[in-house]
Amino acid sequence: MTEKNKISRIAGLIYIGVVLTGIFSLMYVPSKLINYDNASLTFQKISTSETLFRFGIVSGLLCYTFFLFLPLILYTLLRQVNENMAKLMVLLAVISVPMYFINVQNELTALSLIDTPNYLRVFNQEQIQAQVLFYIDQYDEGMRLIHIFSVLWLFPFGYLVFKSNFLPRFFGILLMLGSLGYLLNFFGHTLISNYSELGIGSYLSLPASLGEIGICLWLVFIGAKDNKQ
Q1: Integer distance in angstroms from the first to the last C-alpha of the chain?
Q2: Domain limits for position 171
Q3: What is the per-residue pLDDT for 1?
Q4: Mean pLDDT, the chain, as a whole number?
Q5: Which stretches of the chain score pLDDT less than 70?
Q6: Is residue 227 situated within a structural domain?
Q7: Residue 229 lies in a domain
Q8: Beta-carbon-side half-sphere exposure of residue 142 (alpha carbons within 13 Å)
Q9: Which residues contact 209 (CB under 8 A, 6 or more apart)?
Q10: Is 214 part of any domain?
């Protein structure tokens, strides 16, 4: 196995870690526990499944820890294509990591409200339930800001994949389209109050999902071609 292939396999494994922990923390756990229209039901679900909520927090922290190392490994693989674009890819990705760790404080605060320490007894049950949902909603709003940088990095990454002669150009196109799609979703959610009801968000994010899952599986199971000049 060549050095380039070894690096690609390591990057692919880390990428799979990002994808799996991200799906669990950002999709699975909220789908099981959070009802954004019902504070009482959300409080009840988290109270009865507190361990799942805690695992969701830990999984999110692992996701962004993996994400800290992923662009650094990819940089060593792709800097030969265009070093400036590779540096931009790393910068845009790494910026989102400390932002995420700060944002997790909202989830931890919601968790502390679930346990309801003695000094919070001055609030009635309905007020505490509303605060739990408020902090979870603040966490989601923070994720929208974090995703700006979490998806901007996909454009230089996709460009480098497209321009390389050792990875499929098709994935590069999907990654660049996905980056633009995620940005359109962000502006749509910010500017249009009923944007989620329009039903176009999932279509705009589809190229990124296909591109990211596709490239991480390609890196693991096939690797980078070591083309001879």
Answers
A1: 18
A2: 3-221
A3: 65
A4: 91
A5: 1, 117, 119, 226-229
A6: no
A7: no
A8: 19
A9: 178
A10: yes
